Amino acid sequence: MKGKGRRSAVSLHGARCLTAILLLVALAGCASQRTMEPNPDDPWEGFNRRVFAFNDALDRAILKPLAQGYDTITPQPVQTGVGNFFSNLGEIRTMLNSLLQGKPGNAGIAGGRFLLNSTVGIGGLWDVATGIELTGREEDFGQTLAVWGAGEGPYLVLPFFGPSTVRDTAGMPVDTYTYPLTYVEDDEVRYGLTALRVIDTRASLLEEEELIRGDRYAFIRDAYLQRRRFEVNDGEQGEDPFATDDFDFDDDAFAE
Fold it and tell me: What is the per-residue pLDDT across 92-141, written as a single tens digit (0 to 9) for each?
C-alpha cells in the first residue's frame, strides 16, 4: 500500500510537533452534531467542535488537495527522504527535552541519531541510525511540563494547529524555538521548507483517513489523548496503541 513504511521516524506521533498536530485534525470530516454525554476531558466541546469544523474546511479547500498532488507526482523514495530530513531536525528538540526531563540516555541517543544521520545520512535524508537500531523516544516541551508536574488540562482544538491540551499549548512556543527551521534567516527558504514539511506530513497521512469512523471529532479527540498519554508515560501503560495500522477503539462509542 502506498505510503506505508515511508519513514521509520515519522508516524502519527509526529503529530506532537506543530505540523503533525495540524494534520491530525485535518484528517477529520465535518463533526457530527448529535447530542453526546459530556466528556470530562473535553469541557469546552462546543467551542472545540466549531474550531474543528473551521480547520476541516481549510484542509478540504487547500491542504488535502496539495497533499494529494504531492503524493501523486513525488516518487516514494523522495517522499521518504523529505520525511527523514524533517524528522532528523526534531532530534535536537528531543535531546534538549530529554535533558530537561532527567533522561540523559535518551538525550545521548537523540544526539547520536542527529550526528549520524546528518553526516552518513547526508543531511538526514537517509535514516541510517534506525537501520543500526539506534532508536529512542521523541520528547517535546509538553512532555517536559508533565514530568515537572504540570497537569494535562482540558482538551483544546486550536485554529490551524488542531488537537492539543492546555499543557501542550503552553509548550508550543518552546517547541517552536527548539526546531532549527525557526533560525533560517532567509524568509523564502524558511517558509518554503515549512510548507514542504506540512504538505509532506499531510500526504503521509492520507491513507490513515480510512481508520476514522463514526463521530470523527470524538475519534480524533480520543485518539489524540490516548496517544499523548502513552507518550507522556513513556509507554509504561502498555503497548503503543498506534504502532500498527490495525489499532482499534470501541466501535459502539463512535457509532453514528
Answer: 999 999 999 999 999 999 999 999 999 999 999 999 999 999 999 999 99
| Partners of 158 in beta bridges | 162
pLDDT in tens, 164-211: 999 999 999 999 999 999 999 999 999 999 999 999 999 998 888 777
Range 164-196 burial, b when 16+ CB lie within 10 A, else e = bbebbeebbebbeebbeeeeeeeeeeeeebbee
**Residue 72 is assigned to a structural domain of this protein:** yes
Whole-model pTM: value is 0.77
Instruction: For residue 112, give the nearest of 127, 100, 97 by alpha carbon.
Output: 127
Does 3 fall in a domain?
no
Q: Within a domain: residue 47?
A: yes
> For residue 80, what is its C-alpha cell?
521518504
Pairing of strands 162-165, 155-158: antiparallel
Using left for φ > 0, alpha for ψ between -120 and 50, and beta otherwise, residue 244 falls in beta
d(CA 125, CA 231): 25
Let me know if residue 243 belongs to a domain: yes
Domain span at residue 132?
Answer: 12-29+39-250
AA identity, residue 183: Y
DSSP symbol at 138:
-
Question: CA neighbours within 13 Å on the CB side: how many for 7?
Answer: 28
Count of structural domains, the chain: 1
